[in-house]
TrEMBL record:
<feature type="domain" description="RsdA/BaiN/AoA(So)-like insert">
    <location>
        <begin position="193"/>
        <end position="339"/>
    </location>
</feature>
<keyword id="KW-0285">Flavoprotein</keyword>
<feature type="signal peptide">
    <location>
        <begin position="1"/>
        <end position="26"/>
    </location>
</feature>
<dbReference type="InterPro" id="IPR004792">
    <property type="entry name" value="BaiN-like"/>
</dbReference>
<feature type="domain" description="RsdA/BaiN/AoA(So)-like Rossmann fold-like">
    <location>
        <begin position="10"/>
        <end position="392"/>
    </location>
</feature>
<protein>
    <submittedName>
        <fullName>NAD(P)/FAD-dependent oxidoreductase</fullName>
    </submittedName>
</protein>
<dbReference type="InterPro" id="IPR057661">
    <property type="entry name" value="RsdA/BaiN/AoA(So)_Rossmann"/>
</dbReference>
<dbReference type="InterPro" id="IPR036188">
    <property type="entry name" value="FAD/NAD-bd_sf"/>
</dbReference>
<dbReference type="InterPro" id="IPR023166">
    <property type="entry name" value="BaiN-like_dom_sf"/>
</dbReference>
<dbReference type="Pfam" id="PF03486">
    <property type="entry name" value="HI0933_like"/>
</dbReference>
<dbReference type="InterPro" id="IPR055178">
    <property type="entry name" value="RsdA/BaiN/AoA(So)-like_dom"/>
</dbReference>
<dbReference type="Pfam" id="PF22780">
    <property type="entry name" value="HI0933_like_1st"/>
</dbReference>
<keyword id="KW-0274">FAD</keyword>
<keyword id="KW-0732">Signal</keyword>
Amino acid sequence: MSDRVTRVNTLILGAGAAGLMAAAQAGPGVLLVDHARAPGEKIRISGGGRCNFTNLDVGPENYLSENPHFCKSALARYTQWDFIELVSRHGIAWHEKTLGQLFCDGKATQIIDMLLSELRAAGADLWLQTSIAEVRHAEGRFHVTLDQQGTRRKVVADSLVLATGGKSIPKMGATGLAYDLARQFGHEIIETRPALVPFTFDKGRFTDLAGVSVPAVLSNNRARFAEALLFTHRGLSGPAVLQLSSYWREGEDVIADLAPGVDIDGHLKAARQTNGRRALTTELGALLPAKLVAHLAQAHELTGTLADLTNERVTALAEVLHGWRVKPTGTEGYRTAEVTLGGISTDGLDSKTLMSKHLPGLYALGEAVDVTGWLGGYNFQWAWASAVAVGRAI
Ligand code: FDA
């Protein structure tokens, strides 16, 4: 067992999106450590392997936080256009998929390679398979004990950057280390919860619909999202569901407009005039996937022909389809959540530099902080922007 001491200006804990970007900005005298075998693992699997690295339209309204103003400064000082310029400078081809979401044409690993090459050019060091055993602050410096597969190493740093992210997907190495260390240094932690996560329901509730996807507007009294809704064996997923999950609390209903923009009331009344003998389910099949009509037919007694329908029944049916109400039993939790809501309270951080107000030299950024983006490249943009804010400050 050795006790070598390494002296650095800045020690960054966590070589994910934010840690890599901060190290690339901060340059020589910076040491970046991670317990994983490879850096940026979430970047690698993000966006279905193509990394939705930013969005054309980024604003504070795309983020959740106890303090919705906190993210403004960092997002304004390093924008999506700055990151697009970086990506383009590295010759990485990209495209807009939908709703301003930018993806690599090729593999997401291009983004990791880009960050690593920036990091090397800046002269920062990266140690992988390195765990953090202990962090102390004494005489104006951080004294950190690291563990490299049984070998202890001590690092003394002027600045310490908490970039170990949130709790989402523990199988990929996510831990609550940033929260524990922030707490140790007097920071408040806003209660964390899984976000951008599928809803679960009683077993078998949507088995007959597994794989069916419909354009929908999903809402509750806090938010509404017009995107695809996907039925799965376990419950509801798809972009609309992931988005709303960040605004949902246990025990609440969610409401889906299953035929957004379609005048169901008018459509059925007109069809009743011209095709009165047509089965109601056949007519609805023109508006919705057949499996969904069959599922709704059971729950809402959709029987008979169009001619059988009274005006009241048509209106009631239109209300059901435009305001289909379901109560999730829960979510799939951190096991599959794309991000963690909550985290290190922004009250204790300076919004320009992300430095601690309690302990000068301590910084927190990325997902570890109580700033959580929507689905669509917003979380990476926060990681890049908060990292640049830290990189410029240290
Ligand atoms: P991040 O999680 O990236 O990095 C934290 C690092 O710290 C990791 O390398 C980890 O190994 C390390 N670490 C953790 N605990 C440690 C410990 N105790 N000791 C040492 N090291 C430790 N966002 C987006 O904008 N577009 C997208 O396409 C996607 N897609 C996506 C898909 C999936 C499946 C997931 C799970 C997430 C996304 N996201 C996303 C979200 C995005 O990945 C996430 O918000 C950022 O990676 C957060 O960056 P951070 O650097 O803060 O944490």
